[in-house]
Amino acid sequence: MTDRTDDAAPEARPDEVARILAHLSARHPYDALDPDERARLAEQCALRRVEADQIICRPGDALPGLFLIEAGRVEITDPAGAPVSVLGPGNAFGERGLLRDGRAATGARALTPATLIVLPADAFARLLRDSPAFARFYDRGAPRRGAQAAEAGDLAALRVAELMTPEPACVGPEDAVREAARIMRARGVSCLLVEDAGRLVGILTARDMTARVVAEGLGPEAPVRAAMTPDPVSMGPDEPALAALLLMAERRVGHLPVTRHGRILGILTQTDLVRWQAVSAPSMVAEIAGRDDVDAIARVVARTPRLLAQLVGAGARHQVVTRLVTDVADAAARQLLLLAEKRLGPPPVPYLWLACGSQGRREQTGVSDQDNCLILHDDARPEHDAYFSRLARFVCDGLAACGYVLCPGEMMAVNPRWRQPLATWRRYFDGWIARPDPEAQMLASVMFDLRPIGGDFSLFEGLHARTLKAARANSIFIAHMVSNALKHSVPLGMFRGLALIRSGEHRNRIDLKLNGVVPVVDLGRIYALRAEIEAVNTRERLEEARARGAVSAAGGADLLDAYDLIAETRLRHQAEQVRAGEKPDNFLDPSRLSELERSHLRDAFVVVRTMQSALGQGAATLS
């Protein structure tokens, strides 16, 4: 293997400056710079030629600047030397180290002869300070537009685009009012937008049909132009929703077209605003608590996808969105427990209903199944199981009616295995830790995320802490759990960084749950086991692991940023599907992302793979 390149780079010749300028001009964020500024930057850069197998930098090396690949292929490796990505022309590397302490966070080796453009570190820092476009590109944190207001349910935090109905029903100005009436009936709407060559020219409401067609005796073949309100007031999609509400009140209209440069994008109605006011976590939880049958609870829970979309649109942080979404699921489970007791009578012994999986971690999204169990008081006798079997069936079926899919692995309280006295649960955990076979690893991974939902909470006191202490003391169990955690890989491939699903229904997409969020969840769980961290939420585990030294300060900061980006990308994907009237899922088509977004997402996956490798090598240890 050829040794690494020297830090010094020869001054670029005039012809090389022209090549550098052409490269910068064709790529974001350099294309957003003032042309004169871009030309000066090109003069400050240098070309560096490296041979195949040549080391460009090693982890911890002082970085001369940002490396831009003009030609060739470069392999990025983690601190243990394991490959994490292969980059080609147009890609860059070294920014993580420059943003942190000026030293390389990963290694880089040329796979082929390559030509690199070196953007000096001081120029990189100056651009971060002086160029908003440059700073936005390299800012790995997601925007926090109105996050606090969104958490409080403030309408001012939302944009019109987050509330409007996209692709509204439209007619042409020369269409007959009979056809307009037919469309209204078929679509179940009280308003049509009138477009001509794709541009908004009018609006036709049910009131117009009454006042101008029926009352004035226009025939059914009269043109829409004769009945419509021409040149209606409209608003852009990025305007505050509160401004739309005020405009509608001022103009006394119930329908507001949403346009951009005259082109129709959607429509905002008073119904949309009323629906938004009903879709907030506190109001939904309060409604659920007052419902006395499963169908009524299910109707409230059915608003959850819209709640998610509104919170994401308002800029709420991912941990806030998933916490509020989970609060709704918790409320549904507790109300179903109350209804079950009303139907079955008081329980023969105290019990505790617990959630595990994403609900246990308070990380539910728009796609959630149910994972739950029952801990019974040790006074429970075999004849008591008939009661708890019926209770579990009522609650699990009720949750399924609310849209929480039954667990295909039957990790639910309806399974007698997961409906046991406290002493049995202690034996379960002791056995999994003492004999960590593959099934034990899988079960422990799920059950370490337990969280009480309803019943006698004293049944859980001490169980989690006792189990964590026993797990930490068994190095063989921890090693098996680490091995199990590393089975979930991030979607990094050899071509431009992202590995896509190759076949099936989700071909050419990436699974943001299994290959995005889950690897970080697994890492957080291992850190919690090693440091006896009782938190079950992944972000709380990562924060506490960093505070306790279970993971390095720099590595923990990078992992938190990576997790935030992956989790928020997943939620934005689901929110867009909800707004489009689609069922939310976890499968993202990367081609729908901008180059900036793909670059950031790839870098986040590189961080996760680096931390996985460090965990496998024993680098992430307790202090």
For the secondary structure, the number of strands is: 21
Largest sheet: 4 strands, antiparallel
Rg from Cα: 29 Å
**Poorly predicted ranges (pLDDT <50, ≥5 residues)?**
141-153, 619-623
Strand content: 5-15%
Strand order of the largest sheet: 1-8-3-6
Please, could you describe this protein's structure?
By secondary structure, the chain is an alpha+beta fold. 47% of the residues lie in helices and 15% in strands. The protein has 25 helices and 21 strands. A four-stranded antiparallel beta sheet has the order 1-8-3-6. Strands 2-7-4-5 form a four-stranded antiparallel beta sheet, covered by helices on one side. Strands 10-11-12-13 form a four-stranded mixed beta sheet. A hairpin with a 5-residue loop joins strand 4 and strand 5 (83-87). Helix 1 (14-25) packs across helix 2 (35-44), helix 12 (281-289) runs parallel beside helix 15 and helix 24 (553-579) packs across helix 25. The longest helix has 27 residues, at 318-344. It is flat and about 85 Å long. The protein starts with 13 loop residues before the first helix and ends in a 7-residue tail after the last helix. Mean pLDDT is 86; it is low at 141-153 and 619-623.
